[in-house]
């Protein structure tokens, strides 16, 4: 808009001299504003710069600062939630405030706090400028508010008698209570630290001897109380090792989940954030009473694998319909079972579905023991797959083409929905046109959402791999700029680029994550 007005100025008959004076006055006014330590607000968010930053720290006990870039899409999407969180905290008279710094303009602050990506959120407590705390919560208004509330007040409620603790347990579907004989000891401190981070779980703490006795405890123990599955799960504190915060966090997350989860919009984040290494999925049409009855055997098999395998029921006619393509399935394939290894998205399938609890247990144990090969997706090769300049590979044809010892094969692994893949499509076609007369060079592509390979895992899109001619099944990942000339240099040098200063991938754009909105993603 400013540039447009600048261009239109002479045409509208404005006087250049007056405009220059006005521009100079505006510039001086802005400079005066920046040099002042006055703190202005936008939607209850403090607008900070190097001249008012110290004042903001001194006036606010807890200050969460977002370092952003105006052009950053993630920052733009966060802005409304950040402002909403700031307003909620302000309205409840919390000592916690939110502020923001344009890190592209305030380079001294960005350098001081080591800002290398946007947005970066840091918490400053009691004016301490040297050791800010990294924000670890969710990037939505509720997540920000809860995270700040935990740091503004005690992270766990002190429970002093049996009536209070009983009411506390009954107040929520899920609560964690630490029973410690010394609330100032190391184990209790570790518990408070975990409570501050796990903002979606309500925490209490107790030290009275009568409360230990009431809940059958004799030593320091963290207890998880639930209104589902087993009602009380105990995690005793090891007297020698103490309380490990990472391990306690993992145990609480695992046991906070129902033994068998249903995949819904509300539970998907919990399912994916649990960090359980395997997911066992039962795909059902939940409008069918006959199929619903299969949940009994599924549930009976789940107990022995808690923490190692997460059991999830997926409704193929509900929220689960969107994940079916990830498994190469349709709703008509239900009922069926799949096991997914989360670290590489490998999928495992029974030779023939058997829904008894013993068969499910046997199958899972065989996968865990490495006795079952993964089930790999493959589309059918198009009839003209090798007649176009860019050869179209599928799972079934990949081996024979990529590892042909007489060819140098350059493959683009892509997702049809990926904008970075779409942006480089023309360059890949041009590269193929350039080398279509070369018998020793093949330019190819494979849709990795429809095809899987046993020994190659694609983590982001696009991924480019070069398979040089000759024996040995070698593979080289291409990580440089995605343009025709650089691709050509890479090919002409046998899968290497001449030594040059490193360049950002696609001028700083990261690849699209290779995740799918599925219980395996």
For the record, what is the CATH homologous superfamily label of the largest domain? Glutaredoxin
Low-confidence stretches: 1-17, 502-511, 513-521
Report the CATH C-level class of the largest domain.
Alpha Beta
Order the strands across the largest sheet as they lie in space. Answer: 1-2-4-3-5-6
Q: Main β-sheet, in a few words?
A: 6 strands, mixed
Annotated CATH architecture of the largest domain: 3-Layer(aba) Sandwich
CATH topology of the largest domain: Glutaredoxin
Number of helices: 17
The number of E-state strands comes to 23
Whole-number count of domains: 4
Ends apart, CA distance between termini: 42 Å
- Considering DSSP H and I runs of 4 or more, what fraction of the residues is helical? 25-40%
Give the overall shape. Answer: globular
Structural class, please? alpha/beta
**Mean pLDDT metric:** 86
Give the C-alpha Rg: 29 Å
Strand content: 15-25%
Task: List its salient traits.
6-stranded mixed β-sheet; single chain; redox-active center; 4 domains; Thioredoxin_domain; globular; 33% helix; 521 residues; 21% strand; Glutaredoxin; disordered N terminus; endoplasmic reticulum; 5-stranded mixed β-sheet; alpha/beta; disordered C terminus
SSE blueprint and pairings:
Elements: H1 2-8, H2 16-35, E1 40-42, E2 45-48, H3 53-59, E3 62-68, H4 73-91, E4 96-102, H5 107-112, E5 120-125, E6 133-134, H6 141-152, E7 157-158, H7 162-170, E8 174-179, H8 186-197, E9 202-206, H9 209-214, E10 221-226, E11 232-236, H10 245-256, E12 260-262, H11 268-273, E13 278-284, H12 289-292, H13 295-302, E14 309-315, E15 336-341, E16 346-348, H14 357-368, E17 391-393, H15 398-402, E18 408-414, H16 419-435, E19 441-447, E20 460-461, E21 463-467, E22 476-478, H17 484-492, E23 512-513
Parallel strand pairs: 2-4, 3-4, 7-9, 8-9, 12-14, 13-14, 17-19, 18-19
Antiparallel strand pairs: 1-2, 3-5, 5-6, 8-10, 10-11, 13-15, 15-16, 18-21, 20-23, 21-22
Helix pairs in contact: 4-6, 8-10, 13-14
């Amino acid at each position: 808009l400013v540039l447009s007005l600048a261009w239109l100025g002479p045409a509208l008959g404005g006087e250049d001299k007056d405009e220059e004076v006005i521009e100079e006055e505006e510039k001086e006014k802005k400079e005066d504003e920046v040099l002042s330590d006055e703190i202005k607000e936008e939607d209850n968010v403090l607008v900070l710069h190097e001249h008012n930053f110290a004042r903001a720290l001194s006036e606010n006990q807890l200050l969460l600062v977002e370092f952003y870039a105006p052009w950053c899409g993630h920052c733009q999407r966060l802005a409304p939630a950040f402002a909403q969180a700031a307003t909620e905290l302000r309205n409840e008279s919390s000592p916690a405030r939110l502020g923001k710094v344009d890190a592209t303009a305030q380079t001294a602050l960005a350098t001081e706090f080591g800002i290398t990506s946007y947005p970066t959120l840091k918490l400053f407590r009691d004016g301490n400028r040297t050791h800010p705390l990294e924000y670890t919560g969710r990037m939505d208004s509720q997540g920000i508010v809860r995270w700040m509330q935990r740091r503004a007040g005690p992270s766990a409620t002190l429970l002093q008698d049996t009536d209070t603790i009983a009411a506390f347990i009954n107040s929520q579907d899920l609560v964690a209570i630490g029973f410690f004989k010394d609330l100032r000891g190391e184990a209790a401190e570790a518990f408070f630290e975990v409570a501050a981070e796990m903002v979606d779980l309500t925490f209490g703490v107790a030290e009275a001897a009568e409360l230990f006795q009431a809940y059958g405890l004799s030593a320091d123990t963290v207890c998880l109380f639930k209104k589902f599955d087993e009602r009380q799960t105990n995690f005793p504190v090891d007297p020698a090792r103490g309380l490990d915060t990472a391990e306690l966090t993992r145990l609480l997350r695992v046991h906070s989940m129902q033994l068998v989860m249903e995949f819904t919009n509300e539970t998907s984040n919990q399912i994916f954030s649990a960090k359980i290494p395997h997911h066992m999925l039962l795909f059902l049409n939940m409008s069918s009473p006959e199929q619903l009855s299969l949940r009994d055997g599924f549930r009976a098999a789940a107990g022995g694998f808690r923490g190692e395998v997460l059991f999830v029921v997926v409704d193929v006619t509900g929220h689960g319909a969107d994940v079916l393509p990830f498994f190469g399935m349709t709703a008509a394939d239900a009922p069926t079972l799949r096991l997914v290894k989360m670290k590489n998205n490998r999928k495992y399938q029974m030779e023939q579905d058997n829904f008894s609890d013993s068969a499910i247990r046997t199958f899972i144990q065989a996968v865990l023991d490495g006795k079952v090969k993964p089930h790999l997706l493959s589309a059918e090769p198009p009839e003209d797959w090798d007649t176009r300049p860019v050869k179209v590979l599928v799972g079934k044809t990949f081996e024979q083409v990529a590892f042909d010892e007489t060819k140098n094969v350059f493959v683009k692994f892509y997702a049809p929905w990926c904008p970075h893949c779409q942006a480089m499509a023309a360059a890949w076609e041009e590269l193929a046109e350039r080398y279509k007369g070369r018998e020793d060079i093949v330019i190819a592509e494979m849709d990795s959402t429809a095809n899987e390979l046993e020994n190659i895992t694609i983590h982001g899109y696009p991924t480019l791999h070069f398979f040089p001619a000759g024996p040995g099944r070698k593979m080289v990942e291409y990580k440089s700029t995605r343009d025709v000339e650089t691709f050509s240099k890479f090919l002409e040098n046998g899968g290497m680029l001449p030594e040059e200063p490193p360049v950002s991938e696609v001028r700083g754009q990261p690849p699209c994550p290779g995740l799918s909105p599925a219980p395996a993603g």
